[in-house]
Amino acid sequence: DGGITQSPKYLFRKEGQNVTLSCEQNLNHDAMYWYRQDPGQGLRLIYYSQIVNDFQKGDIAEGYSVSREKKESFPLTVTSAQKNPTAFYLCASSIMVGRLAGELFFGEGSRLTVL
Amino acid sequence: RKEVEQDPGPFNVPEGATVAFNCTYSNSASQSFFWYRQDCRKEPKLLMSVYSSGNEDGRFTAQLNRASQYISLLIRDSKLSDSATYLCVVNERSGGYQKVTFGIGTKLQVIP
């Protein structure tokens, strides 16, 4: 079945460590996105990419990095520079119709806890 | 001003009630609009797209008012299973790219 897969589902890390969250899709979607959600809050855009080897900062990119070397994959690294990294991280993908993004399909999310 | 604004609620309504949510957006050049549903501790899922002419899917009706820059979602005959957070989503052009922005979400609790 086609879909979008995030791993790991739960992750614990110590302060000062970098961690990479995986996001893979087999939907042949051009666009991929990373959002962060804090308890009782909405989704905030971290990074997005609409074509391989190109990505754009979202609203809260500081302390994060991404790469888009393959269409299927859009990993997110949470660096030690991110001041408050404990959150629920959601990856999504969508088709692009011309310059318009279609419906977003989400992975099940990764819950990161910094100890 | 936030790009996409929603009343976070919660809206507590009895079963069978009709409930409406609004969402305002700040960028008049926004191009497409959606409502998503998010259950507790789960990923969001598309509820419906919002078209200029309005659209209906069963008990759900979505409307777009470009002049006043808001979209709405109407739920008729509320069911207990409608309890969730409803997220307003706006696609806007940002430079040469499409930026997809979510509202904070409106929490709906349908009570027996």
Describe the structure.
The complex is a heterodimer of chains A (115) and B (112). Chain A has 115 residues and is mainly β. Chain A has strands at 4-7, 10-13, 19-25, 31-37, 43-51, 54-57, 64-66, 76-78, 87-94, 96-97, 100-101, 105-106, 110-114. The N and C termini of chain A lie far apart (36 Å). With 112 residues, chain B is an all-beta fold. In chain B, 0% of the residues lie in helices and 58% in strands. The radius of gyration of chain B is 14 Å and the shape is globular. The A-B interface holds A 31, 33, 35, 40-45, 48, 50, 56, 58-59, 88, 90, 94, 96, 99-101, 103-104, 106-109 and B 6, 8, 31-32, 34, 36, 41-46, 49, 87, 89, 91, 93-105.
Provide the descriptors you would attach to this structure in a database record:
heterodimer, A: 115 residues, mainly beta, seven-stranded mixed sheet, four-stranded antiparallel sheet, 52% strand, globular, B: 112 residues, six-stranded mixed sheet, five-stranded antiparallel sheet, 11 strands
Helix segment tally of chain B: 0
List how many beta strands of chain B DSSP finds.
Answer: 11
Q: Give the fraction of residues assigned to helices of chain B.
A: under 10%
Query: Roughly what is the average pLDDT of chain A, rounded to an integer?
Result: 93
**Overall spatial form of chain A:** globular
User: What is the H-and-E element order of chain A?
Assistant: EEEEEEEEEEEEE
Q: Given the helix and strand composition of chain A, which structural class is it? A: mainly beta
Instruction: Give the assembly state of these chains.
Output: heterodimer
List how many beta strands of chain A DSSP finds: 13
Tally of contiguous helical segments of chain A: 0
Largest sheet of chain A: 7 strands, mixed
- Estimate the strand proportion of chain B: over 45%
> Which parts of chain A are unreliable, with pLDDT below 50 for 5 consecutive residues or more?
none
